Amino acid sequence: MREGFRIGEHLVERPLIQGGMGVGISLSSLAGAVAKVGGVGLISTAQIGFREEDFDEHPLEANLRAMAKELQRARELAPKGVLGFNIMVATREYSRYVEQAIRCGADLIVSGAGLPMDLPGIHQKAAEKLGQVRTCLAPIVSSRKALSLIGRIWERRYHSYPDLIVIEGPKAGGHLGFTREEAEHLTLEEYGAEVAQIREEARALSERAGRKIPVAVAGGISTRAEADRAFDEWGVDAIQVATRFVTTEECDAPGAYKEAYLAADASDVHITQSPVGMPGRALANEFLRRVEAGERQLVTHCHRCLAKCDPKKIPYCITDALVAAARGDMEHALIFCGAEVAECREMQTVPQVMAELLGDA
User: Fold this and answer.
1) How far apart are CA 356 and CA 251, in angstroms?
2) φ, ψ for residue 197, nearest 5 deg
């Protein structure tokens, strides 16, 4: 049986973190189910309030309100579990989401889609104001250079160190911290070498922090063999898995979204250029074909999701496309997925996926 690990003061019984998936794919049901069986459950804050009545008029307020609701529901499912939020650095009003996560009592904030340079500072100000128990902080990185930069900035400006480091590889779903060419052609050996470099940097950070900083690896882990490689060859403390949890009964995605995953094979996985300026991995469907053929969709309403987005210049609104997916409108949906989506062959439960990947009950 794989040993658990610690994130700050939290003992995680099983070394698996469920990756954040937005919009509306990893909410309270999935996160709570993973935490209930000993893993880490993450709720994605990306337009989390899309079901709130005032979402179109007041998206920030709707999102912050939904964060509290979803974490409370997840706590009800897993009162003793480790639960947190995935918050994108690229989010407009990023600091407000971080502060709300702390206010809600999240155990952990995992942050990527940009380098979370100011995360400790936001946390320190919020904790002073709110008087909350400390929320653990985890940056997502794809290179040693990125981790080294984060480590230096956190240490110098805030006298702070990560509580967890998540290494996200080129086979991940959604927005990628790699170029299109790297995402398509980076070999397993090259990626393994980069993981080793990042772990070396993490060890140096741990020495300066005076405590062990655990390392998790993410991206393309869909089978027991891939999980074993991460633990036994790469020497990480945990794995982060997202795609395999979509086709579980507990996942918050609608039925049509899950069916699209079940029907997919390797040829359906496509790397596209997102309106946010980053490559992203998604399922090829009619919506994506129209977009890549040059069809431009008029954006009539801004949902204020990203800090750097000009509605007049983008080919389509990514919020509209991801909300369509979360509502089961596959004709207008952007369906993010990991490279190994074809491993999603049948509907399962969260405990079944956990046992399959970790090899224990």
Assistant:
1) 17
2) -65, -40
Helix intervals (H) in the chain: 28-36, 59-77, 94-104, 119-130, 144-158, 180-185, 188-209, 224-228, 243-246, 255-263, 286-292, 318-326, 350-358
Please list, in sequence order, all residues whose beta carbon lies within 8 angstroms of the beta carbon of residue 329, skipping any fewer than 6 positions away.
Answer: 256
Yes or no: say if 186 and 170 are a contact pair by the CB < 8 Å rule.
yes
Q: Are 146 and 169 in contact (CB under 8 A)?
A: no
pLDDT classification of 309: cutoffs 50, 70, 90 = low
Q: How high is the pLDDT of residue 311?
A: 65
Q: Which two tokens stand for residue 302?
A: 């801004």
Is the pLDDT at 299 greater than 90, yes or no?
no
pTM score: 0.94
Q: Is the dihedral of CA 123, 124, 130, 134 positive or negative?
A: positive
Smallest CA-to-CA distance from 79 within 91, 71, 90, 89 is with: 71
Q: Is 297 within 8 Å of 316 (Cβ atoms)?
A: yes
Give the type of residue at 113.
Answer: A
CA distance 80 to 88: 26
Sequence-separated (6 or more) residues with CB below 8 Å from residue 346: 247, 262
Closest CA to 283 of 235, 337, 229, 246: 337
CB 23 within 8 A of CB 328: no
3-class secondary-structure state, position 37: coil
Residue 78 CA: distances (Å) to CA of 74, 107, 300: 6, 13, 40
